[in-house]
Amino acid sequence: MSTISREEVAHLARLARLEVTDDELDAFAGQLDVILESMKTLAEVNTDGVQPTSHAVPLVNVFREDQPQPSLPRDAVLAGAPDTAEDRFRVPRILDEEA
Amino acid sequence: MTQQIDGSQARRSGLNDYDKAVETYEPVLGLETHIELDTRTKMFCGCSTTFGAEPNTQTCPVCLALPGALPVANKAAIEATIKIGLALNCHIAEWTRFARKNYFYPDMPKNFQTSQYEEPLCENGYVDVVVDGKEYRVEIERVHLEEDTGKTLHVGGATGRIHGATESLVDYNRAGIPLVEIVTKPVPGTGALAPEVAKAYTAELRDIVRSLGVSDVRMEQGSLRCDVNLSLNLPGEEWGTRTETKNVNSLRSVERAVRYEVRRQSALLDAGERIFQETRHFQETTGETRAGRSKEEATDYRYFPEPDLAVMEPSREWVEELRATLPELPRKRRERLQAEWSLGDKEMQSVVNADAVDLIQATVDAGTTPSGAVKWWLGELSRRANESGEELAALAITPKQVAELQGMVDDGRLNDKLARQVIDGVLAGEGDPADVAAKRGLEVVSDTGALEVAVEEAIAANPAVADKIRGGTHAAAGVLIGAVMKATKGQADAGTVRKIILDKLS
């Protein structure tokens, strides 16, 4: 009856870099199922000729002039980094293994 | 020379001969080009975009994606993109929006890149290029606006490469600089000329964007970057699987990357193997393309509309205002210059192919005749560029120096042979032509006294030739002129020498 499989939940979790236990996979699959079922109810509404809503606020063309504003001091910027070196953000190696 | 390098690679890695490959298979090209705009500020915040600033000094809560920060689109970047779209004959969207492209890679602090997905700002354009006297229409699928990523420095591996690195250091100054992506539709029908068409398209695109004044489009500085898609198919059959080669950062590399993929893929197809849809990386030093990460998970960027940025509805009035500001585009400009320079179609095409339009114009502006400027750039200097495998514009000689050189030839201070030696000196960094000529002692000998002595000696050494000339056979003077030239190490003016000889022997 489930419309979303454990594998699909695992795939989504991987894409979002979320660590999920086996038990949680079952729990989330069930919960997502409820959400998808609710969406089906919404899908029953006839929306022919209705523009899809892109944004909740009715604003268009909000632009900024190309005028420089002060940036943050570097010390403040790097203060939020877990680790730094040579005035840069230091991050773990990017590729898991040599390609 | 290039041919030889290619030959040895062919044996190493299973490449077909290019001409043979295109006899059997038909290439289909596709090009994706990223152009960094030269706005003063970033795409969604007021941080400066100055190149070469100290690391992480041009960042703020918006481009660092600190919680609660709200991006606002840069109007100048939108206008620049619309101008590019118009110059590429695109339709400008009536309704368009930004989207989040989600991926996890530390070059973006946000864990997504703000880009555009199904509703690009500009669509369905074209660029016409001429190769070998034939016109090819390269259709543009879309032009969209996104933001550049930060710069990563890979530490611990070999020479800054990502493979084998133990850690990476990130500078976010570049993160958020407006980036325009221009994607072509697949381009079939170029046959053996696929590499040249790819190069001509990239050059034309660069020239168009440069003429608009919205980017400095310096490939060597990374403000114009190319990805080359290529597939092969047998005539009459469906298009093959394409590879995407990234990191192609010069016009010459675009040509080489296409050529390499044609040779590599055709060898695989001949052997009955299949082509994998994969990302490859161009190797500037060897001209090869190499596979990227092997078992990459199929990319799923989970695009969704960017909720923090309002949708855009470029009014038709605004679009027309921008259209009215478009400058003379490169194609028109070339037609005008061709007329001004009195060049034939073929000659002008050579100028374009050599990427010498701007160089020649600058040389003419510096005071040389068009024919003088064309002669050096298409002749001796093209030859030097080929020899060293450089782009013409990368040679260590400026249009002003070429104008000075030709001026010295016009004044009779240099002949062509000496001028070539002066070029040696200029390219070696010895200074402007006049300095080089002075330092190397390369001026034409105008001291007629010294020339007369040399002529007397030549006559004495060649009495039989001298008799012939006395007898009226003036063509024989060539032998004596040659002897004088040799004695003066090429520094005599041949016309003057001839005159002295004939005066003495008649």
UniProtKB/TrEMBL annotation, chain A:
Transmembrane segments: none annotated. The keyword DNA-binding does not apply. GO terms for molecular function: ATP binding; glutaminyl-tRNA synthase (glutamine-hydrolyzing) activity. It is an enzyme of class 6 (ligase). One of its GO terms (biological process) is regulation of translational fidelity. Pfam families: GatC. InterPro entries: Asp/Glu-ADT_sf_sub_c, GatC. The keyword Ligase applies. Its EC number is 6.3.5.-. Keywords: ATP-binding, Ligase, Nucleotide-binding, Protein biosynthesis. Allows the formation of correctly charged Asn-tRNA(Asn) or Gln-tRNA(Gln) through the transamidation of misacylated Asp-tRNA(Asn) or Glu-tRNA(Gln) in organisms which lack either or both of asparaginyl-tRNA or glutaminyl-tRNA synthetases. The reaction takes place in the presence of glutamine and ATP through an activated phospho-Asp-tRNA(Asn) or phospho-Glu-tRNA(Gln). This is Aspartyl/glutamyl-tRNA(Asn/Gln) amidotransferase subunit C. It comes from Glycomyces luteolus. The lineage of its organism: Bacteria, Bacillati, Actinomycetota, Actinomycetes, Glycomycetales.
